[in-house]
Design brief:
The protein has five helices and five strands. It is globular, with a radius of gyration of 14 Å. Helix content is 38%, strand content 19%. With 149 residues, it is of the alpha/beta class. Strands 2-1-3-4-5 form a five-stranded parallel β-sheet, sandwiched between helices. The longest helix has 15 residues. Strand 3, helix 4 and strand 4 form a beta-alpha-beta unit. The two termini are 14 Å apart.
């Protein structure tokens, strides 16, 4: 069986993981998380690529490219854009690639403005509140979902 092609997208400020509010986001860096995802992907017969940007337009452009790359699935941590970006929602709807929304912290235990997501209702699933394990759970869930299609 050919490997599934999965894109992991990290939104704004996630490049600061490891130093940014470790009490909320943990002490692992984004590089640490990406390395774990690549290792897990290899063990699950998935080719993982990662992308991080602090700029909404770059995230939208990368989603458009995902369709041209014929990716099988996407895991996205839109970070603060979760609560503000109709552009990300529209891009995800336009490309017709199944995606999982991921958050390191439990957004429902935080400020009320973080309780609204512009992506959750169109996502294949949402995983929130398990730190870096949220990404690993999302990868396992997405691969299982794609294999059972």
């Amino acid at each position: 069986m050919k490997p599934l092609k999965i894109l992991i997208i990290h939104g704004p400020n996630l490049n600061l993981l490891g130093t940014r509010e470790p009490e909320t986001y943990g002490s692992q860096t984004l590089s640490d998380i990406n390395a774990e995802l690549l290792t897990l992907g290899d063990s699950l017969n998935a080719k993982i690529s990662t992308f991080q940007s602090n700029h909404e337009g770059e995230l939208v452009d990368r989603l458009h490219q995902a369709e041209r790359d014929k990716l099988d699935g996407i895991i996205i941590n839109p970070a603060a854009y979760t609560h503000t970006s109709i552009a990300l929602r529209d891009a995800l709807l336009a490309i017709h690639i199944p995606f999982i929304e991921v958050h390191l912290s439990n957004v429902h235990q935080r400020e009320s403005f973080r309780h609204q997501s512009f992506l959750s209702d169109v996502a294949s699933g949402v995983i929130t509140g398990f730190g870096n394990t949220s990404y690993m759970l999302a990868l396992r869930g997405l691969i299982t979902t794609l294999q059972n299609k």
